[in-house]
Design a protein that fits this description.
Blueprint lengths: L16 H23 L3 E4 L5 H6 L3 E4 H10 L4 H8 L9 H15 L18 E5 L6 H12 L3 E4 L13 H26 L5 H24 L9 H6 L2 H5 L4 H20 L9 E7 L9 H7 L2 E6 L17 H21 L5 H12 L4 E7 L3 H4 L2 H9 L6 E6 L9 H21 L4
Parallel strand pairs: 1-2, 1-3, 3-4, 5-6, 5-7, 7-8
Helix pairs in contact: 3-5, 4-5, 5-6, 7-13, 8-11, 13-14, 14-16
Length: about 450
């Protein structure tokens, strides 16, 4: 990190060859979308959580606006877009992914309906539709509604709901209520895509996309499992660079090839005992919060002290449990498969700490041999920040692992202080060293 108190080193050195290729994936995403726009084919701006199998089955090319915000932050070109949204009355407390997308759209309209000069990588292709999802956080409910006013573009909001963690997911009445609601949402979503594209949903092609997506998920999961090795073959910062195929294009053959190549490289590194850094003194767990995309070089500061992040809850592909779903309807299959997989995680938590997310973190600490936990409080991301203290307290009931809370934002550099961050990391690493020697954090 630099000496000016703000973000300067935007990326960490890549330990793996596959991570060095990940940047090409993002470039391809924007290039293909622009080619589709020029050809008159449908282009959608999407949120993570939009049912990719259905989108891909309709042949809709996609741009993920959350990913674009991360790219802009990494390239240090986010501030002008954030300020454009704020000058239109949007609070700086609103998700910075949301603000950047709104600021981009405002400048797009002001500058003659073309990518604004402030846009990174030539901007995002003009959408023919907006596909939104309620998964994970509250600003999503209004984000694309606001974008639709700037873009004058039809949008659809796909609602994703799950039972509260204290509700019995195995109760037949609960199960069918939530599954039937999900099926109705998928049916409405497919109907919207059909109307916008003029195409009918091909069930066989949708089944093909589902199978490809499950294979991609399995390969990605297997790559994560390989990181349990000592020394760890791939650090968190590398894996975070490699999320685009799995999170945003999980139903494409290119994504399958990407993670197959990753698995091959990591397998070789494990067999040859090649680690991510020269001196892996302590294994750390990224325990919550989106990363500061504007200052990923922060991970290098940990590494210089021998601290390596070996797993992360952010952008983590939960284990793709094999579940039996008996139906010939691909939409019903998607609803039941996702419910059953989440229910397996819920059952595991009932046998442990009762909280599915915290149970994953406890498993991380045990399975990846973590000796330090770091959580990032993103100022504008309540969904990944609220509950972090509760999670830490629940974890400490089982293991009093040293825990560090960092504060900034995933996109907005105005909420980042280099000096303050480095000081907290220095103090934390002393605690980790003490924990390794004595089994107590202080």
């Amino acid at each position: 990190m630099a000496d000016n108190g703000k973000a300067a080193i935007t990326s960490a050195p890549k330990a793996t060859e596959i991570a060095k290729k990940a940047n090409d994936w993002t470039k391809m995403m924007y290039k293909k979308a622009e080619e589709s726009r020029k050809a008159g084919d449908p282009v959608a701006w999407c949120m993570w959580g939009t049912q990719q199998e259905i989108v891909e089955a309709f042949g809709i090319n996609t741009v993920f606006t959350e990913n674009y915000a991360a790219v802009a932050a990494a390239k240090q070109q986010a501030d002008a877009l954030l300020e454009a949204a704020e000058s239109d009355g949007f609070s700086n407390l609103i998700c910075s992914y949301v603000r950047l997308g709104i600021g981009y759209s405002r400048l797009y309209k002001e500058q003659g309906n073309q990518p604004p000069k402030e846009a990174v990588r030539g901007g995002m292709a003009k959408p023919t539709m907006l596909l939104a999802s309620s998964l994970a956080c509250d600003p999503r409910y209004k984000w694309y509604q606001a974008l639709a006013r700037y873009q004058d573009t039809p949008y659809y909001f796909y609602d994703v709901v799950h039972p509260p963690i204290d509700q019995d997911r195995d109760d037949p009445q609960v199960r069918e209520h939530y599954i039937n609601y999900s099926i109705s949402q998928l049916q409405d979503f497919a109907a919207f895509c059909s109307k916008q594209t003029g195409e009918k949903l091909d069930d066989e092609y949708l089944w093909e996309k589902i199978r490809t997506g499950e294979e991609v998920h399995r390969l990605w999961w297997e790559c994560h499992e390989l990181r349990k090795a000592i020394p760890c073959p791939m650090p968190t910062e590398d894996m975070m660079s490699c999320i685009v195929p799995g999170f945003f294009y999980s139903c494409r053959e290119e994504s399958r090839d990407f993670y197959a190549e990753m698995k091959e490289e990591l397998t070789q590194r494990v067999e040859q005992g090649i680690g991510s850094i020269d001196d892996e003194k302590c294994r750390l767990v990224w325990g919550g919060g989106l990363p500061p995309w504007h200052t990923m070089g922060m991970f290098s500061y940990f590494a210089d002290k021998g601290g390596l992040f070996v797993c992360e809850i952010a952008y983590y592909p939960f284990e793709p449990y094999e579940v039996e779903v008996k139906t010939g309807d691909p939409l019903e299959y998607l609803a039941r498969r996702d419910y059953e997989r989440a229910t397996i995680r819920w059952r595991r938590a009932q046998q442990g700490c009762k909280d599915p997310l915290v149970q994953v973190l406890l498993d991380f600490i045990k399975d990846y041999q973590g000796v330090g936990l770091v959580m990032h409080g993103s100022k504008s991301c309540r969904a990944s920040t609220i509950g972090q203290i509760y999670n830490k307290n629940l974890i400490h009931e089982s293991v009093k692992i040293p825990t560090l809370f960092l504060e900034s934002d995933m996109v907005d550099t105005r909420d980042f202080s280099r000096a303050h961050t480095e000081q907290k990391i220095d103090e934390f690493m002393v605690m980790v060293e003490q924990f390794q020697r004595t089994g107590a954090p202080e």
